[in-house]
């Protein structure tokens, strides 16, 4: 049985494909779309064709199309069903509630047999949060929060207040928060909660006439010691970021409660500091966050929900990898490189290729690394990565300033073999998908100084030999040469583009940046 899940039609459109209950492909439209740009909205036909190709299937083979609808059933769903039938003639089309798709994406992807599932986002189908009880293959709704009582919306307002782009730059607020003290956390708690009610955003803190500053009103400015509508001073920016972060973490813990297993999805699930706070809270024995927690991940959830809910299948097939996108053959890579009139070296064996990459890193080169299937979601997990040596004292400057062109407070991740992580870092299980943060051990604080966010926090990515054997081998090969099996890792993309998908994307980014070397498959390119 082939089920095609479609999500993010209004933002971050994506497709996911289940084949007999197994997640075999997941592709975002903006990564495979012919034109680079921002988040894609609309029917993700290119992503669907790619997913079908990866599964060795055709449109006529699709038995069910599961749509994670971004709006209630009555709002324009009918014409979408008709359009899907044009493209998938033999498919049954089913609609899945937006937050149910979020919940399904987290629970069915987890290893848990039962769990509490919390979904939180800005808004989807006019709701911004739900709480579910999951047992076996069933999800039961226990609580929901309607817009405008939105924790995600408040976080986006602060994003705009600090001069960032709401709906896109919330991650910048998260990382900025690590350099500030939560002096005004109490103010945000007042905005968010009312005694005995829980999450209830007090609208008296906002003024609709304030455009471009998050809509905060005179009451808010007075509470933080500024005149109404005043520009936020530079020294206050990390303080406000830390304050809303702390208040958000406390509210999420209140909403989640306590128990054995917790699953988290929705846009707020992308907040790695929040996930780490949940992991360390002691309120839950196990926490799992859907690594593609945003709207793109609802494609996965819609497909899972159709498998279990629509078709009544009881067999669970948890997600084991996010490397679910397309890959390029040696012939395809060679064709692009020759067409671009580039000089390259072809390395015959994997050992030669690994040795060449290690040699480049030892020479303090910044290395682009494109291997295997593209990752689904916003994070590079060793297949579409830019790599650097932690032993290079200029890694921070080279990666952030000259290559990624981003703020110094946005640190890169430290990738380490899963079996060795305990020697260097303290981190939770969600580090396998880079959805949490860890703490560097005191003995290695100096080594990883350039990646420390504040108070010893580090973005840690644990690499399992079974999940990504090639990247795992590279880390060990690097460790054998240097005594430190850890590499700095950031996503292989530039200029606000999505992560590179094709060899042509890789060439474009490589020659438009300060990256020194690139390893694409077994091909090595040097500047």
Give your account of this protein's structure.
The longest helix is centred in the middle third of the chain and has 20 residues, at 237-256. The protein has three domains: 2-108 and 295-310, ATPase, nucleotide binding domain (Nucleotidyltransferase, domain 5, 2-Layer Sandwich), CATH 3.30.420; 151-289, Nucleotidyltransferase, domain 5, CATH 3.30.420; 330-526, DHBP synthase. It has helices at residues 29-32, 45-54, 77-87, 98-107, 151-161, 170-176, 185-192, 218-223, 237-256, 272-280, 298-310, 330-339, 350-362, 395-403, 421-424, 469-482, 503-510; strands at residues 2-7, 14-19, 22-28, 64-69, 92-97, 114-124, 127-135, 138-146, 193-194, 198-199, 259-265, 284-289, 345-346, 367-370, 384-388, 413-417, 425-426, 438-440, 457-458, 460-463, 487-491, 517-520, 523-526. It is an alpha/beta fold. The strands form five sheets. An eight-stranded mixed beta sheet has the order 13-23-22-14-15-21-16-20, with helices on both faces. The protein starts with a strand and ends with a strand. Helix 6 (170-176) packs across helix 9 (237-256), helix 9 (237-256) crosses helix 10 (272-280) and helix 13 (350-362) crosses helix 16. Strand 6 (114-124) and strand 7 (127-135) form a beta hairpin.
């Amino acid at each position: 049985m082939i089920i095609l899940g479609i999500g993010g039609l209004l933002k971050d459109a994506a497709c996911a494909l289940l084949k007999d209950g197994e997640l075999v492909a997941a592709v975002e439209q903006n990564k495979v779309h012919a034109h680079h740009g921002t988040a894609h909205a609309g029917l993700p036909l290119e992503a669907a064709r790619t997913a079908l190709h990866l599964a060795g299937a055709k449109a006529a083979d699709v038995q069910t199309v599961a749509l994670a609808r971004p709006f209630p059933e009555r709002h324009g769903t009918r014409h979408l069903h008709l359009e899907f039938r044009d493209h998938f003639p033999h498919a049954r089309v089913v609609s899945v509630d937006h937050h149910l798709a979020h919940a399904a994406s987290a629970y069915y992807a987890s290893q848990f047999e039962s769990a509490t599932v919390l979904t939180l986002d800005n808004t989807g189908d006019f709701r911004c949060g739900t709480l579910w009880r999951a047992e076996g293959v069933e999800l039961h709704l226990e609580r929901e929060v309607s817009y405008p009582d939105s924790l995600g919306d408040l976080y986006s307002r602060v994003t705009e207040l600090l001069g960032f782009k709401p709906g896109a730059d919330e991650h910048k607020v998260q990382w900025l928060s690590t350099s500030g003290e939560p002096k005004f956390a109490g103010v945000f708690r007042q905005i968010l909660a009312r005694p005995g009610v829980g999450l209830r955003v007090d609208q008296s803190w906002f003024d609709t006439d304030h455009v471009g500053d998050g809509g905060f009103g005179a009451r808010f400015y007075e509470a933080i010691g500024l005149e109404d509508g005043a520009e936020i001073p530079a020294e206050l920016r990390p303080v406000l970021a830390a304050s809303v972060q702390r208040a958000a973490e406390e509210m999420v813990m209140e909403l989640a409660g306590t128990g054995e297993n917790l699953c988290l999805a929705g846009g707020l699930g992308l907040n790695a500091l929040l996930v780490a706070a949940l992991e360390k809270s002691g309120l839950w024995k196990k926490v799992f966050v859907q690594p593609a927690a945003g709207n793109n991940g609802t494609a996965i959830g819609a497909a899972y929900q159709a498998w279990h809910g629509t078709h009544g299948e009881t067999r669970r097939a948890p997600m084991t990898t996010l490397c679910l996108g397309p890959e390029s053959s040696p012939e395809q890579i060679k064709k692009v490189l020759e067409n671009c009139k580039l000089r390259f070296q072809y390395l015959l064996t994997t050992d030669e290729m690994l040795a060449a990459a290690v040699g480049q890193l030892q020479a303090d080169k910044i290395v682009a690394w494109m291997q295997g299937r593209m990752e689904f979601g916003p994070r590079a997990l060793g297949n579409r990565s830019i790599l650097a040596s932690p032993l290079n004292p200029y890694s921070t400057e080279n990666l952030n300033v000259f290559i990624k062109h981003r703020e110094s407070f946005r640190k890169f991740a430290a990738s380490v073999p899963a079996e060795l992580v305990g020697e260097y870092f303290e981190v939770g299980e969600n580090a396998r998908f880079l959805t949490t943060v860890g703490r560097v051990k005191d003995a290695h604080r100096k080594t990883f100084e350039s990646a420390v966010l504040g108070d010893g926090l580090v973005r840690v990515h644990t690499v399992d030999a079974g999940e990504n054997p090639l990247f795992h081998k590279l880390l060990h090969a690097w460790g054998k040469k240097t005594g430190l099996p850890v590499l700095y890792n950031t996503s292989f993309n530039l200029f606000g583009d999505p992560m590179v998908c094709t060899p042509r994307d890789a060439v474009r980014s490589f020659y438009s940046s300060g990256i020194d070397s690139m390893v694409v498959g077994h091909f090595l390119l040097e500047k």
